[in-house]
Amino acid sequence: MNFLTAGESHGSQLTGILEGFPAGVVLDIEKINQQLKARQGGYGRGNRQKIEHDMIQIVGGIRHQKTLGSPIALTIKNIDNSHWAKIMDPLSAETPQNTLRKVTRPRPGHADLVGGMKYGHRDLRNVLERSSARETAMRVAIGSICKQLLSQLDINIIGYVEQIGSVKALGDRPLNVKDIEDKIVQNDLRIIDNEKIDEIHKLIDETKINGNTLGGIIRVVVTNLPAGLGSYTSWNTKLDAKLAAAVMGVNAMKGVSIGDGFEIAKQYGSQVMDSIDWNKEDGWSRTSDNLGGFEGGMTNGMPVVVFAAMKPIPTLYKALQSVNIDNHLQQKANVERSDTTAIVPASIVIESVIAIELVKEILNTFEGSNITRLKKQIEDYRKEISEF
Ligand SMILES: Cc1cc2nc3c(=O)[nH]c(=O)nc-3n(C[C@H](O)[C@H](O)[C@H](O)COP(=O)(O)O)c2cc1C
Ligand SMILES: C=C(O[C@@H]1CC(C(=O)O)=C[C@@H](OP(=O)(O)O)[C@H]1O)C(=O)O
């Protein structure tokens, strides 16, 4: 399985193609739209989300709510394009009259300057339009399709927020996906520690007033994955490495850890390794999950736990120092509309890219042309593993 996305932030639409997805999967299209809506939300978002109402359009690969096994083709309209149609017009020539809202003052922390250098763009809008996280809407749509398949294979996944700026909202860190879901739907920060809501709202409000921005930490939990997805046999078959790459492929991510990653580096081996256990009823298990469900690049049957560290949003309303690429004079960086923090939508994006990567690995491991055959193989495999 693989996927591709295309489209600029203020262009007419986002386009996505997902190929190699099994046939016969019944999809709930409303669930895709719910995920898209959730990605648009979260405290600290900018005004763009008041314009957009992301809705998935299916233009290939699905018939009567079921996947056909052919490439699934998707689009999401950019409603804001109505204000940018002339600026983003693919057909009109690049004349001074048509090159409106040219960007020449690159923003520190964004792709603007290096993207311009590499691709030879003198109008940095050609860079920012695609480097924008608008594209993550399509990854969430594709991730939602993958999540629905995982759910039909009894695998559950959830991403949520554990830290915004320096404020931690750890709560009791449940491993049960349902418990996490129940708590995070009650607030607009996607945190499980409801006592922190007021403090974090205040932090975001003050940050916005100061023209500044915030990042944070996201936690993703996946339960009921069979042991043995991924492989220790070669570096590029390790599934933990593939998950880390998928996380780092999301805009603004600067760190990833599997399980307690950087925390366990400080501890003794005796405090960290997850002891092996077996009993007749439940088969194999571990007495803890410090290693986040991975040993030797393979799932070990315990919940997979992934952390992602997001940097603060790079566009600041109190603009940072930059240099104009037209005259090399020091000037303030370009500022357009921007989020104060996007940690909440990013948690849904991270959950989505992990879901995509897990489905890829499942389809690498089992024959996945058809959902019924795939389900049967996974059931047989789970049984074989439990009897080891
Ligand atoms: C959901 C989401 C929303 C984002 N919103 C903004 C934004 O409003 N303004 C901004 O400057 N960056 C935003 N970013 C981050 C930039 O897209 C990102 O920092 C930039 O493309 C540079 O890439 P890098 O941070 O991965 O190096 C957002 C990221 C995500 C995941
Ligand atoms: C459009 C989205 O996020 C955008 C991501 C983004 C960036 O630089 O990454 C910059 C902003 O773009 P605009 O200037 O159009 O408001 C965000 O709104 C979205 O998430 O749907």
Automatic annotation (TrEMBL):
Enzyme Commission code: 4.2.3.5
Record CDD domains: Chorismate_synthase
UniProt xrefs under PROSITE patterns: CHORISMATE_SYNTHASE_1, CHORISMATE_SYNTHASE_2
Xref: SUPFAM superfamilies: Chorismate synthase, AroC
GO terms, molecular function: chorismate synthase activity; FMN binding
Catalytic activity from the UniProt record: 5-O-(1-carboxyvinyl)-3-phosphoshikimate = chorismate + phosphate
Lineage: Bacteria, Bacillati, Bacillota, Bacilli, Lactobacillales
Associated pathway: Metabolic intermediate biosynthesis; chorismate biosynthesis; chorismate from D-erythrose 4-phosphate and phosphoenolpyruvate: step 7/7
Domain of life of the native organism: Bacteria
Taxonomic source organism: Liquorilactobacillus cacaonum DSM 21116
Binding site for FMN: R130, S131, S132, N251, A252, G296, K311, P312, I313, P314, T315, R337
GO cellular component assignments: cytosol
Subunit-level organization: Homotetramer.
Gene Ontology biological process terms in this record: amino acid biosynthetic process; aromatic amino acid family biosynthetic process; chorismate biosynthetic process
Name of the molecule in the record: Chorismate synthase
Keywords attached to this entry: Amino-acid biosynthesis, Aromatic amino acid biosynthesis, FAD, Flavoprotein, FMN, Lyase, NADP
Matching HAMAP family: Chorismate_synth
Homology family: Belongs to the chorismate synthase family.
Protein function: This reaction introduces a second double bond into the aromatic ring system.
Transmembrane annotation, as ranges: none
Binding positions (NADP(+)): R39, R45
InterPro entries xrefs: Chorismate_synth, Chorismate_synth_AroC_sf, Chorismate_synthase_CS
Cofactor: FMNH2
Note accompanying the cofactor annotation: Reduced FMN (FMNH(2)).
